[in-house]
Description:
This protein has helices at 26-42, 70-87, 118-128; strands at residues 48-55, 58-64, 91-101, 104-114. It is an alpha+beta fold. It has a domain at 24-132: Gyrase A, domain 2, CATH 3.30.1360. It has a four-stranded antiparallel beta sheet. A hairpin with a 2-residue loop joins strand 3 (91-101) and strand 4. Helix 1 (26-42) packs parallel to helix 3 (118-128). The longest helix has 18 residues, at 70-87. It is extended, with a radius of gyration of 24 Å. It starts with 25 loop residues before the first helix and ends in a 38-residue tail after the last helix.
Amino acid sequence: MNEFQATGRTDAGQDLEEFDAPNVNPQDQAEYTAQRVAAAFEATKLIEIVEVKASLGQVHLMGRVHKDNEKDFTHQVVTPILRTAEKSSIDVHLCKQFFLKQDTLRYAWVISFASDDIKTAAFKITESVAQAVPHREIMEAPLSGPSAPQSGGRTSGRRGASPLGG
């Protein structure tokens, strides 16, 4: 047993020495990777992915970007992807695909990339757009628990404040 192997039981209670990992074929792995990349892009809230395709060594996404988000999308998503592709061996294709929908001209953004090591490429691509993911900062949150005594006691609660010092 090497240093990375563990002894014990899985979460399902199976003995680890008897555990046999499922056999995942390359196409299933590619599709899983493509779905994870799509989720990372949607986390930016700048694009809604409407189509996900995967093949061995390639991920293809198509999505809608609201016109109010176009500038942010190009700066926070497209530009970092292109910079990442320049620094690595990832072939990237970014474009707008035009089509007619009920006789009206529409378009969607297409993001495709290919690599001999698609897992590493997917990681680099998703990492490049991670800064575009909005972060929430909680400034204030109500405390839960019993309410503070009305006599100005030193306990925390819905009406009282947490004591800061001794």
